[in-house]
Amino acid sequence: MSSSLSGTAAVVSGASSGIGRAIAVGLAESGLARLIVHFRKNSEGAEETAEMARSHGCETTTLTGDLSIAADREHLCREAFSRLGVIHTWIHNAGADVLTGDAAGESFEQKLDRLWQVDVRGTILLAREVAIEMRRKATPLPPSMIFIGWDQACEGMEGDAGMMFGSTKASIMAFASSFAQTLAPQIRVNTIAPGWIQTSWGTETSGYWDRRARQQSLMNRWGTPQDVARAAVYLADPQNSFLTGQTIAVNGGWNRRGEERADD
Question: What is the pLDDT of residue 155?
């Protein structure tokens, strides 16, 4: 499918699975010419994402790196621009997984530290490096930088997960807003704030969380990674050059009636 993404290049961090994979493939489906799929440990998953993108005619390679490590961030930025030259879209999707795997059994403090080092500090420092290179390489229309927030970050949610993800995602959303003010008009900066998205955690969670996810959406369903990807493709489109400093909630519309909906 041809679009105004044709001939452009992008980097998607944390693209070995879930939302990152959906965004990478969505960009490829929309005509992206060249793509770098970033991953930390899941090389097999990253290669699967790359193959899916290649099936749509997108020249795709993979790069590894831990965003909490300065040398890895520098390597990722340097290699990405070396391989792609001009980068039209950089999507900061990478985040620490503290809900599944070994990290799920860690303490609140350990999980918070992981999220802070990767989702906030690592992402902010990497974004600043990327912006320097983007500014050096002129494009006909302003390149796009996209961050991933959370629709409940500023409203609050009870429990450890709400306190961890609320504080870290609100931080990155605030940074993105200030970054948009700083980089305009040379670079467009926007944020996607997903709601209840059925990634690996969502497919295995309890009946309580399944019901809650459905009830808190006006569409009465979980969101999918593809729902988020469609928003990312829209924000990445160079023709949307007047769109910056925005946060788009991909949550099916917040249901203010709460559990009443389930009883209708």
Answer: 85
* DSSP letter assigned to residue 219: T
3-state secondary structure of 38: strand
* Helices (H), ranges, 55-196: 70-84, 108-115, 123-136, 159-183
With DSSP H G I counted as helix, E B as strand and the rest as coil, what are the percentages for the chain, rounded to 5? Answer: 50, 15, 35
Q: Distance (Å, rounded) from C-alpha 194 to C-alpha 246?
A: 14
pTM: 0.92
pLDDT at 3: 63
| pLDDT tens column, 18-54 | 999 999 999 999 999 999 999 999 999 999 999 999 9
How far is the C-alpha of 204 from the C-alpha of 213, rounded, in Å? 13
User: Measured between alpha carbons, how far is 121 from 47 in angstroms, rounded to an integer?
Assistant: 27
Tell me which of 3.10.129.10, 3.30.360.10, 3.40.50.720, 3.10.20.90 is the CATH number of domain 9-263. 3.40.50.720
- Residue type at position 236: A
- Smallest CA-to-CA distance from 85 within 23, 16, 4, 11 is with 11
> What are 79's two structure tokens?
């290699």
Residue 160's nearest CA partner among 84, 104, 108 is 108
